Amino acid sequence: MTNGLAITGGVERCVLEDTRELVHAGHDVEIWHRSSEQGDDGRAPFDALGVRLHDARDYRFGVTTALRDAARFAWEGLRLRRSHLDVLWLNRPEFLPWGRVVSTFSGVPLAVHLHHAPNYRRLGPISGGRTRYLAVSQSMARAWSEAGIPAARITVVPNGVDTSTFPAPSTADVRHARRTLGIDSATPTVLYYGRLTRSKGVLALLEAWGRVLATARARQPVTVPAEAGSARRQPLLVLAGALYPDDADAVRRAVDALPTGSVLVLPERDDVVPLLHAADLVVAPSIEPEGFGRVVVEAMSTGRPVVAAAGGGTGEILSGEWARFTVDPTDTEALARTVLDALDETVHDPSLGVRCRAWVQEHHGRAPHVAGLLRALLEHARS
């Protein structure tokens, strides 16, 4: 069960990828979802997999409408009972009240995927029953345990990406990607992609970017490989994503305050691989702790190092030698310094990209994720 099918974020992408893996492993999957009011309802890839899709009703639960909501959920549970499912897999933990009631009335054990921070302060009263929890990182497991879910009920199943869909680029790929975006080959390029909001650290990044530019101007030119020219130009920050009403004006003002041509703002796009190929470095400075940090593994899969928040799931991914690329994103001076150091390292360490990709293949590829997910769901269904 999920919210919508159209890919608007990491959760929707995870649902599609995991569904594909489950189907290919020979399992029968049904998707219960809410119909989208947008043009693209996201059904096509699920239809191609032969997955049965069901329109679900409103999952929301309110204190003032508790009895009416519980009655709706109970009816949904009775409706779902006819599907004879082995396990109900809830991918939106904010709808836990829905899942608990539906699980009770359908008689189907509930597995709740914890993709993000808790939505409720106290979960004890609704965390029981035949319910198991799958956390995408240790930090999410701790956060939900502190909110009231018994730690023994939580299994950590880190996310993974298909590295074949996030390939390392050839020199020709880099040139084409940069040419398409109008970026010179000698321009140090830093990429952020995702929601352009304060909580994702975009305003902190833009403040830090001013420091990056000032420091870069004060430094001697940095030598680059021969094919890129003799000296690097003013660094460029690429922001690719959607502006949200609450923060849109603040983001625009922050961009306008920076030197002309130092920031390139692009609309949200599904295919981010060309953006990654055009970048030297990726930044994921989320102030709100990430559940996992999919951007980090996507970027590193393409051979791009990532500067990311030291907390949450991103801090867990960037362990070992990669810990030097973690930072407190609210400390804009430290963020700027780390970005500059990382840019220098991309120039002076030609093995950096290869090591990035190898790290993802070993620790965050699809195989370990799918094995962990299948094991957890099958064990819960059998129990």
Strand-residue proportion: 5-15%
The domain count comes to 2
What sequence of helices (H) and strands (E) makes up the elements? HEHEHEHEEHEHEHEHEHEHEHEHHH
CATH architecture of the largest domain: 3-Layer(aba) Sandwich
Structural class: alpha/beta
Q: For the terminal residues, how far apart are their CA atoms?
A: 20 Å
CATH class of the largest domain: Alpha Beta
Mean pLDDT: 90
Low-confidence stretches: 226-230
Reported for the largest beta sheet, the result is: 6 strands, parallel
The CATH topology annotation of the largest domain reads as Rossmann fold
User: Roughly how much helix do the residues carry, as a percent range?
Assistant: 40-55%
Rg measurement, Å:
22 Å
- Looking at the structure, what is the overall shape? elongated
Number of strands: 12
Strand order of the largest sheet: 9-8-7-10-11-12
Count of helices? 14
CATH superfamily of the largest domain: Glycogen Phosphorylase B
Overall description:
This protein is α/β, with parallel strands linked by helices. It folds into 2 domains: 10-160 and 365-382, Glycogen Phosphorylase B (Rossmann fold); 163-363, Glycogen Phosphorylase B (Rossmann fold). The chain is 43% helix and 13% strand. It has 14 helices and 12 strands. A 6-stranded parallel beta sheet has the order 9-8-7-10-11-12, with helices on both faces. Helix 5 links the parallel strand 5 and strand 6. Helix 7 runs parallel beside helix 8 (245-256), helix 7 crosses helix 12 and helix 10 crosses helix 13.
